[in-house]
Amino acid sequence: MNARRVVVLVLFLLIACAPIWAESDGATSAIIKADLPWWAWALLLFGFTLVLGVIAVIGGVGGGVLFVPIVAAFFPFHFDYVRGAGLMVALCGALSASPHLLRGGLASIRLGLPLALVGSIGSIAGATIGLALPTNVVEALLGVAILGIVLLMIVSKRSDIPDVPQPDAIAGVLGIKGTFSDPSVGRDVSWTVHRTPAALVSFVFIGVLGGMFGLGAGWANVPALNLLMGAPIKVAVATSGFILSTNGTAAAWVYLNSGAVLPIVAVPSVVGMMIGTRVGARLLPRVDAGVIRWIVISILGVSGIRSLVSGFLGG
């Protein structure tokens, strides 16, 4: 890690930790104390998620994984409503991108469908468990999960085109393979996958985490597809969106049926995030994505610590 990244990391940790220290002194954030009308909260949430959408694209993370811990930490909404809105944010982003990726041949239905099936089962189970548990317990578990995501983002590497000599038995039977045109290497790339049984088990747990906390699971889907199964990174990223659209839909029904999707939280969040991601896509070629990535890691780290502390103090 170079000096610039260290400086960025320390500055954002100091700034983001300020509300935690303020609360430890018996104070609360000024924005929380303000007696604002409902439309003011909607406007604030819209502006906040618009910025999150820009950061999510440039930092290379899903909007849901940023939305839930940060909004839960700094907005006065009940945690169940934040998780419900987080699922909608992640789901809408995936649904908007999936058709284009499927038509372009990067997202693979043969690869994504069995993983999405077991992931959906996990998502429904996770959403049911998350809504049944006490809020402070879920907040503490969210803190642990977010800190795990931060660690994964720091240590994980990607492999653009992994070497998979031959598919495993399940991948061979299901015909999980494909070919796509990669302009970066100037040729067509043929691929297949292995370790499918381990991946199926992994996606059950990924689904549980996504459903329980209302997080988009791109942070886990892509490493599992790329590093565990050996799918090329472009196929992994594209197929992750297809899997997320299926898993998110399954978990979203549980939150909808439980009344945990509040329009005043979900609507401005989805609109702000969708606009922000479009802005971020335009800004991506002009900014230093490495610095933004470390900013994202810093913010997530602070939010994870805050959720962990809030969960324990709330108990």
> What is the N-to-C succession of helices and strands?
HHHHHHHHEEHHHHH
Distance separating the two termini = 37 Å
Structural class by SSE content: mainly alpha
The major pleated sheet works out as: 2 strands, antiparallel
Shape summary: globular
Summarize the model shown.
By secondary structure, the chain is mostly helical.
Keywords, separated by commas or semicolons:
mainly alpha, disordered N terminus, 315 residues, two-stranded antiparallel sheet
Q: Can you characterise this structure?
A:
This protein has 315 residues and is mainly α. It has one domain. Helices cover 75% and strands 4% of the residues. It has a two-stranded antiparallel sheet.
How would the blueprint of this fold be written?
Layout: H1 3-24, H2 30-33, H3 38-59, H4 63-74, H5 79-103, H6 109-132, H7 135-155, H8 169-174, E1 177-182, E2 187-192, H9 196-213, H10 218-228, H11 233-257, H12 263-283, H13 289-314
Antiparallel strand pairs: 1-2
Helix pairs in contact: 1-13, 3-4, 3-12, 3-13, 4-5, 4-13, 5-11, 5-12, 6-9, 6-11, 7-13, 9-10, 9-11, 10-11
